[in-house]
Amino acid sequence: MKGYIDKYHLDSIFPAEFMPKLDVVEVKKNTYLTHQSSSFTHLYILVEGKIKVEFYNINGKFSVFAFATPLFLIGDLELFHSQGDNIINTVFAQERSVLLSIPLETVRIFGLTDPGFLQFVCKQLSNKLFESSLFRTGIFLTVEDKLKRFLYYHSKRNGTVLVLEKREDLASVLGVSVRQLNRAIKSLNEKGIIVSKNKKVEIIDYDFLKKDIEFQFDAK
Predict the structure, then answer these.
(1) CA distance 29 to 201
(2) What's the pTM value of the predicted model, to 2 decimals?
(3) What does the pLDDT read at residue 194?
(4) Nearest Cα residue to 50 out of 65, 34, 72, 76
(5) Burial degree of 220 (CB within 10 A; 0-12, 13-18, 19+)
(6) What is the DSSP letter of 17?
(7) 197 touches 156 (CB < 8 A)
(8) Which SS3 state, helix, strand or coil, does residue 119 take?
(9) Are 201 and 151 in contact (CB under 8 A)?
(10) Cα separation of 143 and 140, whole Å?
(11) Residue 170: which H helix or E strand, with range?
(12) Is 48 helix (H, G, I), strand (E, B) or coil?
């Protein structure tokens, strides 16, 4: 645990009262950490691995909220949500993942009055709102533009190679159909921006992608 605290400087984020209550949770690949509507008892912070955040609407429609890598906070939405002590999203480990857990009672007693922790939570919520809005704002945004935005911001955090286990998941994040996503991937392949083979998508013309994304935002 100390290795993760030192690596991410968590002692500067968490109040001192959190430290004795922290626990290490390991989640195996292709297993669930939380289930939607289950009891909300702990806050989790991803320190190793990769997870997928899923949501099922009341009509049964499935959607993917995010693909997450460290540092990613789980439970920040629930902490301030009015629906009570229930988990909002299902969290699935796409690879072996390690998280630190903090009891909800400890968070409410010590975290909600700590400026450093609250600033961290606000940054997490802000990042989630920004990334969610990237692909769903702008009525004239094409599927190809949505894909380029996703690849660009994913590469800034995780490098230029994306392992795509299921195209349905990425299509859900972008708010498009799998058929539309496949056409966009093919188009970017043909333009020499990416190389897509099996489950791997690699950006080979990052400079063009960066300039194109910056142009989209400058044009607004």
Answers:
(1) 21
(2) 0.75
(3) 94
(4) 72
(5) exposed
(6) G
(7) no
(8) helix
(9) yes
(10) 10
(11) helix 167-174
(12) strand
C-alpha 180, offset from chain centre? 22
Domains of the chain: 1-128 (2.60.120.10), 138-218 (1.10.10.10)
Q: Which amino acid is at 180?
A: Q
| Nearest alpha carbon to residue 152 among 107, 217, 80, 76 | 217
User: What one-character DSSP code corresponds to residue 15?
Assistant: -
Contact 88, 77 (CB under 8 A): yes
Structure tokens that stand for 195 in this block: 């190389």
Residue 121 near residue 79 (C-beta atoms within 8 A)? yes
pLDDT per residue as tens, the chain (220 positions):
889 999 999 999 999 999 999 999 999 999 999 988 888 999 999 999 999 998 877 666 667 888 889 999 999 988 887 556 788 888 999 999 999 999 999 999 999 999 999 999 999 999 888 777 766 555 567 899 889 988 998 888 888 998 887 898 888 888 888 999 999 999 999 999 999 988 899 999 989 888 887 766 554 5
